[in-house]
Fold this sequence. Notes:
Layout: E1 10-14, E2 26-30, E3 36-44, E4 49-53, E5 65-66, E6 72-79, E7 82-85, H1 90-93, H2 95-103, H3 108-124, H4 132-142, H5 154-163, H6 167-174, H7 181-215, E8 219-222, H8 223-227, E9 243-246, H9 252-261, E10 265-266, E11 273-276, E12 279-284, H10 305-309, E13 312-313, E14 321-323, H11 326-339, H12 345-355, H13 360-372, H14 376-390, H15 398-405, H16 409-415, H17 428-433, H18 439-450, H19 454-465, H20 472-498
Parallel strand pairs: 8-14, 9-12
Antiparallel strand pairs: 1-6, 2-3, 2-6, 3-4, 4-5, 6-7, 8-9, 10-11, 11-12, 13-14
Helix pairs in contact: 4-5, 5-7, 6-7, 7-9, 11-12, 11-13, 11-14, 16-20
Amino acid sequence: MYPFLKPGDKLVVKPVLAASIEKGDIVIIRDDSNKIIAHRLVKKLTGDTGITKGDSLLSQDSETINLSKIIGKLETIARKRKFIPVSSGYRNRIKGVFVWLSTRCMTSGALRLRAKNIFRWLFIRASDKTDLEQKFILDILKGDFQVIPAGINWERVAGISDSNGVSGIIYQQLRGLQIPQLIFKSLENQYHHTVAQNLACIQAMKLLDQTLDDQKIDVMLLKGAALLDNTYCKVGMRPMCDIDLLVRPWDKVYIEKCLNRIGYENEKLNLHVFTKKCVVIDIHNHALNTDRIKSREILFPAGMNPVWDKVVPWKSDFKRLKRPDKPDMVLLLSQHLMKHSFSGFIWFFDIYLLLREQNKSDWEKLFKRAEYLQQIRPLSYVLHCLKLLFNFDPMEVKESNHLLSRISFVERALLDTCKAPRYKWNIAPMISLFCIDGLMNKIRFIKENIFLKQEVIKEEFSQFFWSRRILLYPKRIFQAMAISGKYIILIVKQVLRERGIIR
């Protein structure tokens, strides 16, 4: 929470009702490891839930909090014989400014952490190396885990597992082994939380299937919801933040009415998101959200109709909830990974589970389908990353080696950042350009990603920028320039590496 809170500060906390807590207030909570944390409430959700964030951190807290169960709200700071009021005075009046700075990682603490990461990358060259803890996690995921390496930092193992969505898998593999009790308890708590969340989602999907069957409307489950209870052997191994539903455009109105009928509420800012207690349903017309950025349809030129033609029931006793068949699932997950800059071990592991048991005929079907849907390049990127992370190399498949040989050194330089997901390289805009044919299409894609639609601005930035774009567009242009500078560094390093100048 630096610089708002500083080392040595003493906090005066007041118990309050959830209804009296406002966005920008600093709330005191107890995490899964029983630590007491003071974080700022940056967003209030429906009901008595909200999202918190530490001002000096680079990301929001991974789990929503129940405001009715917090310890209290920060009232006063005692600092060096002075009492600084927080819930009154000018600090209370400008707490919206603190939220704006915190969510954009522009506080002095967050900027210092960013500078530290950049310094590490430039001078220690850690961005293209997999450290001990990451290697240990990857060994567990690919089944090569034998012994626990000496000198491992268990707190980092738990942190990387949590941020990459693989805590449940790591917990299952480490059960019964000699690891620190506090770390094991943390992994166990996350696993049981995922079990409870996923069971609630499965119950919600059963009710939704019955409701849609009355209306004779089909929907398609995407990402984690499509894999849950099918690809993963245990319900707590695959976390889900929400249930992603792909719907046909002409069915969207009817599906929204169905959701309202069974108790779901529409979020004010995100009109495509519906919530009911702990279950969140996100409705999509297109797997790549082309309603938000129209030019994304260039990345999947065949559209969603061919995917709809190949859907299969989610489970045998479900009539209206469908999922993509195996080849389409791999290709849609590949696009999703590319949209998220090939970061997140859980999405790689999803594809790894789908591909590792494939025989030669399955591979031939996948490559034919990728060619038909014009998804050869995204698939080649995923295979390249799987080879880096999981040593997954289907040598008996000639098409696989042919695809990997077609990746240029610039693309390899960008994709190699997947080995260090902690740096959150935003390579998605650049790597997507290699998948787009035609100069005008590339220009259109860049323009629409920088200059967002009015409805997207309202949804994502309305609480900070209202209807004015004076601050938003210069900031996005500056971010694009900064990211381009990072791309140049990556490409130069790849050239030097291929020439043997550096390792």
